[in-house]
Amino acid sequence: MPLEVSSFLLPSTWEVLQMPRYTMPCQRNSQAPEGEPDQSHVYDFGKWQNWANHIESCAPWTMPSDDKELAALLAYATEHGYKVRPSGAAHSAGGLVTSQADAEVLVVSLGKYTAPEDWEYKLTPQEGKIAGRVMVNAGWTQLQLMAKIRPLNYFLPSQTAGYFFQLAGIVANTVHGGIYESGFIYEYVTRMRVMLHDGSIKVIDDEKDLRFWRTSFGLLGLIIGLEFELVQRPKLQVYTVPQRKLADWSEVEFWRYINVDAAANVPPSTPGFTEPTGSQEAASGEFFLNFGLDDLLGSSMLCVATRTGENATLPGIPTDAPADVVAQYEKLMQHRVVVKDHGQEH
Length: 346
Fold this sequence. Notes:
single chain, alpha+beta, Uridine Diphospho-n-acetylenolpyruvylglucosamine Reductase, domain 2, Uridine Diphospho-n-acetylenolpyruvylglucosamine Reductase, domain 3, 3 domains, 6-stranded antiparallel beta sheet, 4-stranded mixed beta sheet, 7 helices, 15 strands, globular, disordered C terminus, FAD binding, FAD-bd_PCMH_sub2, FAD-bd_PCMH, FAD-binding PCMH-type domain-containing protein
């Protein structure tokens, strides 16, 4: 879902830049130090928290709207001694952003950010193994990108388990992919547009430099634009492999479900791999395990899998994008969720 948050919930970048330099208290309606203007109303909701409320901090959660505001925010942080930490969907390990005890952090989200010109979104079809490239605002989620490219049968070469992750976060953190013959999503980044600590902007396109920005956790600067390689999948099936109770919890039974039931395209050289080998017709698989710690339920496995191209032949499962694929994406992107215990919508 889009990361944009209603403006009344979070402080604007301008409001943050006008604030005095002192540690904002977390309690609502608390008073500023004597002689300082009271700005606590701005922070009624604008404090960073992670996705599951494991961490609720005092760190201002800001959402600059363009390069100018983002550069101004970095200058403010430098002047007043803040550490700047990027945060996307707030789904990574909380300590990468801040903790409840760290009062010197300013959190920056690209949820409201608009990139200039082609860096907002540009799709370039190509011939050959790489079917195309897409330049995209790094503050977009996978859902926002897929809403643009899926109706045209384009996909990222790899994928994650959640469509709500922010693209910059996927690249800056170690986010795995679920495609058997593909790797980490950051492997398919060919260019990055980044902002350094001083507000200057660079386009990184040399592999010698890109390798340092992948999994950089925001330590080198802010990733604000990305270019990805794309593949085309005109035929795609998504289906659930039936859950099966394992004869016993063993290495053989584990691999039997993955390779035979789920038809995983896993090479025999995979560490820990044991026979038997199945059809290897599935392109990806997301597995759910019940370890069966009690004798009554036993151990079981279930898989959500995909097949593509010539292997997308399972009966009764659509292979083409639905006729209303654009409308379905639009409906999904309009979905609202309520933040637990805050009663506010994101």
